[in-house]
Amino acid sequence: MSDESIFQARRRFLRGAASAFLGGSILAPTDSLAQDNDLLATLIDIDACDGCGLCVEACRKRSDLLVPIPEDIAKYRRRYKFVRDWSKGARHDDRSRLTPYNWLTIQKISLGSEKSAIYIPRRCMHCLTPTCAILCSTGALTRGRMGAVYVQEQFCVGDGSCTMNCPWYIPSLQPGTSSLLSVTKDASRMFKCDYCVDLQLKGEKPLCIQACPRGAMQIGPYPLMVKKAHELADLKGTKDIFGLTENGGTLTFYVSSIPLRELEIGLLRAKAIRPGLPTLRVHEIPVEKQRILSFVAATPVAALVLAGLRLWRDRHTR
C-alpha cells in the first residue's frame, strides 16, 4: 500500500470509527485527500525579501477573522498546566513569532556580510506527507485538493498531537475556541496557516503572496515550482533548496545565495529558533515509523468503538 493510500485509509477509519461511536452527531467527514496533480507550491526567494512585513499584515487580517477570541478564558479548564492564552493584549498582537492568531512571521538574522540583514518568512510548510495530519488523533487535520494542510474546526479537540508530530512544531493551541464547548471543558483548538485554501479554490493566490511588493514569493503548479526552484538555485550558485525533500517533501521551497547551514547558524546566534520560530532543519519521522504510529494513534478510537459494541451486546444479551 502506498503512503498516500495509508493516509487516506487512516482518515476514513478515524472519522468513521469516531462518528460511529458518537452517533455521527459530532464527527463526520467533510473533505477528502486529493491527487497530487493539482498541488500548488510556493517558492520563496530569501534574497528578495526585505522584511517589510506586508505579508504578515495581510495574513493577520485573515487569521483575525477566523480565530475567535474567548469571552471568559478563566472558565475553561486547561488540559495542560503551561498552556498560554494568546487572545488578549500584547500576546494577541504579537507578530514576532507564530501564534494561534499569527500564522506568518519573519525571522531576522545578521551574518555580518555585505547584506546587513536577512529576512525569512516562516509559516506552515504544507508537507506532501503531513505527519501532523497522519497522526492527528481525530482526523481534524486534512489536506485539500491543491495540497493545503488545514484544520477542520468541527473535528479539532486541541490535544496537541499535531504539534508534537510536526517537524517544525507549527500548530499553536488557543484555549476556549473549540466548537465542542458544549461537550467538553477542555475547549481548546489548534491553529496554523491554512494556505488560504478557500481562495485557492476560487483561483486566487494566498494573501501573503498577493501582498508581497518585491515578488519574493510566487506560487504555481508543483512541478513548475520545483523546476523554478532549481533554476533559481543554479542562478545563485547553490544546491540548497529547503523544503524540497525535508519531511518527505513540502509545498514550500526556500532558496538563498547564502548556504542554509550559515542561515541556521545565524538564527541560532540571534536566538531566533524557539517556540513559534522554526528551525531550517528537520527531525524527520521515517515512513516506516509513520505507518506504525498511524495504527498506534488509531488504537484509542478503536478501543472506544469496541467498548461501545461490548456494552450494546451486554445489554441485548441480558
Protein described:
Mean pLDDT is 81; it is low at 1-6 and 12-34. Helix 1 runs parallel beside helix 10 (287-317). It is built from ten helices and nine strands. By secondary structure, the chain is of the alpha+beta class. It has a three-stranded mixed β-sheet with strand order 8-1-9, with helices on one face. The chain has one domain (31-298): Alpha-Beta Plaits (2-Layer Sandwich). The chain has helices at residues 3-21, 54-66, 89-93, 131-134, 161-164, 197-201, 207-211, 222-236, 260-269, 287-317, and strands at residues 40-45, 105-109, 118-122, 141-143, 149-151, 172-175, 188-191, 217-221, 252-255. It is globular.
State the low-pLDDT regions, or none.
1-6, 12-34
The tally of helices reads: 10
- State the order of secondary-structure elements, H for helix, E for strand: HEHHEEHEEHEEHHEHEHH
Instruction: Indicate the proportion of strand residues.
Output: 5-15%
What characterizes the major β-sheet?
3 strands, mixed
End-to-end Cα distance: 43 Å
Return Rg in Å: 21 Å
Number of strands: 9
Q: Just name the CATH architecture.
A: 2-Layer Sandwich
